[in-house]
Amino acid sequence: MNTTTTGPVSAPIPTVRRLPQYLPVLEEQAGAGKTSISCTYLGQKLSLEPTQVRKDLEAIGAIGRAKVGYSVEELIGGIRDFLGWNNTSEAFLAGVGNLGTALLGYGKFTEQGLTIVAAFDSDPARVGKNVHRRPILSIEKLPSLARRMHVSIGIITVPATEAQGVANRMVEGGIRAIWNFAPAALTVADDVIVENASFSISLALLTRRLAQRSRRTSK
Amino acid sequence: MNTTTTGPVSAPIPTVRRLPQYLPVLEEQAGAGKTSISCTYLGQKLSLEPTQVRKDLEAIGAIGRAKVGYSVEELIGGIRDFLGWNNTSEAFLAGVGNLGTALLGYGKFTEQGLTIVAAFDSDPARVGKNVHRRPILSIEKLPSLARRMHVSIGIITVPATEAQGVANRMVEGGIRAIWNFAPAALTVADDVIVENASFSISLALLTRRLAQRSRRTSK
DNA sequence: TAGATTGTTAATCGATTAACAATC
DNA sequence: TAGATTGTTAATCGATTAACAATC
Q1: Sorting pLDDT into bands at 50, 70 and 90, what band is B8?
Q2: Closest by alpha carbon to B133, among B119, B146, B122, B120?
Q3: Cα–Cα distance between B111 and A55 in angstroms, integer?
Q4: Is the pTM of this model over 0.85?
Q5: Are A7 and A19 in contact (CB under 8 A)?
Q6: pLDDT grade, residue A20 (50/70/90)?
Q7: Cβ-contact A112, B200 below 8 angstroms
Q8: DSSP H/E element including A116
Q9: Selection from A179, A206, A212, A159 nearest residue A92 by Cα
Q10: N or C: fewer beta carbons within 10 Å in chain A?
Q11: Tens digits of per-residue pLDDT, A140-161?
């Protein structure tokens, strides 16, 4: 049985955004002993149309059974495969402030294919210490060590003013994907992936909706 | 001069997502003494088409001058107004773990219209202490205090298993918008805004792109 | 002036939703 | 069986991109 099919090469970005959100619902159902689940139910939980859920599941190559639904376990495995969460990638984190420390202590990343193997900082007072069982090294050492260890992901949690410099060092070290938590527009080579995860993006969506509503209701 | 125009009531969600990302570029330009900026330049910085930038700026009601561009200061003000960042909203944070502590220590929220006034936790060992100059109170007190203080935003940084219970308490306290960092699909009343900011969404976008590329290159 | 840039309309592209037959 | 649900095609909707006149 071929469980390592390539699957569809591309999926809509909104689909990729929704896929991880199905997982908690699926895991809850699995925990409750349920073996199958319908698009109607999943849609209800995430406030989505059943048809949209079906399209999303089609994108990961899932196959359901009429009247029954989809296998909960197959969906969990299928989504995780699709997102690459069943293969571990090693990451370096730069910037051991509040947020960097929180990410180093976040327990879920191992289930999501991400292992932060070392942290880096420019502050000599921090270098040499350990945070959540990972060593803090000098930022200077990042490029050579990244290259030697074939680290593929760089996480940026430094202040915005230092983000570009850190990104440069990461690219210099052969890092192919940057998870950028700094509110800064990074300039990198075309073949380097940058995913901006700054709080401001998410907060903007929240405050905008709030501002819009209070404007309506105050009329 | 009327500077408090209502502006367009609705904008595409992708636009709202991009708007906060223009700000660091604009602030950098302002810091360098530049008074005007073009869509071409902004687009280059964020890897967007100039036309798309123009559409985004049109959404906030910005007006530029041919050959010159847009006023940097006006754009900064316009974006912040549009996002509601010029009016402060008070927030309660529930869950003083690694992430909750990091958010309490995050300095940028004040510039983004967000003030976290108190933190809540269910762990008696934490209750009574202060974190980043905010008191940690018992989660039991959240509903009544939220109602009394007219707090409009709730930030959830508890484990996924407790997220729904905390959301219920927030809604009970009259909170109208929830910024949810827990990987959990919350069920709330229709008129409550939920913005999911769990790391998994952003990480999925990163790892998916990485998995897709390594699949291509390994062919 | 020439040409860079805005503002705006139209065309294209892509995602969501609707419709409906197949099926378990 | 009846009806809930999938799978799939078509229709709709909305966002992006292209085109181009206006203009400073």
Answers
A1: low
A2: B119
A3: 40
A4: yes
A5: no
A6: very high
A7: yes
A8: strand A114-121
A9: A179
A10: N
A11: 999 999 999 999 999 999 999 9
User: What is the distance in angstroms measured between the alpha-carbon CA of B219 and the sugar C1' of D10?
Assistant: 35
- The sheet carrying A134-138 orders its strands as A130-131, A134-138, A114-121, A89-94, A153-156, A177-180, A193-196
- C-alpha distance from A47 to closest chain B C-alpha (Å): 9
Compute the distance between CA of residue A27 and CA of residue B94 in angstroms, rounded to an integer: 23
As given in the structure block, the two tokens for residue A9 are 């090469």
Smallest CA–CA distance, residue B138 to chain A, in Å, is 22
DSSP B30-94: HHTT--EE-HHHHHHHHT--HHHHHHHHHHTT---BTTTBEEHHHHHHHHHHHHTTTS-EEEEEE
Report residue A214 as tokens: 């209070």
Question: CB of A153 within 8 A of CB of A89?
Answer: yes
A202 touching B (Cβ < 8 Å): yes
Residue A130 in contact with partner chain B when CB distance is under 8 A: no
Type of residue found at A199 = F
Give residue A10's pLDDT band: very low, low, confident or very high (50, 70, 90): confident
Mutate which of A202, A213, A214, A216 to disrupt the B interface (most B C-beta within 10 Å)? Answer: A202
Q: How close B18 comes to chain A (CA, Å)?
A: 7
Number of residues written out for chain A: 219
Residue nearest to nucleotide C22 (CA to C1'): A66
- What's the gap between Cα B154 and its chain centre? 12
- Give one DSSP letter per residue of A170-208, joined into a string: HHHTT--EEEE-SSS-----TTSEEEE--HHHHHHHHHH
Contact A193 B213 (CB under 8 A): yes
CB atoms within 10 A of CB B8: 13
Q: What residue type is assigned to position B120 of the chain?
A: F
Residues of B in contact with A203 (CB under 8 A): 20, 109, 112, 114, 179, 195
- Separation CA A188–CA A180 (nearest Å): 12
Average pLDDT score over residue span A69-81: 97
Q: Is the CB of A12 under 7 A from strand C?
A: yes
Distance CA A92, CA A218 (A): 48
